[in-house]
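Entry type: protein chain
Record version: 2
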Amino acid sequence: MRAIIIDDERLARAELRKLLLEFPEIEVVDEAGNVDEGIAKIDMHNPDLIFLDIQMPGKTGFDLLAEVDKAPQVIFTTAYDEYALKAFEVNALDYLLKPVEPKRLADAIHKLNGAENSAAASPYIPGTENRSMLSEDDQVFVKDGDRCWFVKLSEIRLFESVGNYAKVFFGNNKPLILKSLNALEERLDEKVFFRANRKHIVNLRLIEKIEPYFNGGLLLELKGGEKIEVSRRQTVKFKEMMSL
């Protein structure tokens, strides 16, 4: 499993590297001392796991997660226990308080191994990834104000355009992200996410009901209860995709 350590303290990075020697399944492929460097290293290596400090000069670990396109597994490492609750709100794999204790690190790696064994995603093979496209098994980080989530794309039923933002519908949550629907459409798998009209992209797997609508269009009811009109132009494409 390929990992990157992101921490502004050089000694903390060195100590964690040393502790991780006890876990041959974890290969530390690089490290970074700030958020911008961390984002560059994530883009370069596409790691399975990051050990991420929260409080760093300029930008926080949460800022980093909000800026990366695809979130790897995250274990937070920080001296600030006040951030613990917020870390778990984003569903991080674990949270380690500095100085990191070997026993707590072992517990975190054990959790990581359990998460990997139950994951549905295919194993990472260097050189085969398509960085421009996101699969439904990928998880993304969504930040709206002080609230943060890790969300599997397969759990998102709808994206709705709101000016320069997109509203993301999953569970009972509807946070806004600073992305246009056109930008999202370019990254999403068209076999799973369908542009129903100018304002909506729907998850085809989370459609509950399909009904005829005005002017030859269709009305989709999603599992969350939302009703979305498919434009007449997109209805032709939708019927071909769904073999209706």
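Comment: Helices lie at 10-20, 35-45, 61-67, 84-89, 102-118, 181-187, 232-242.
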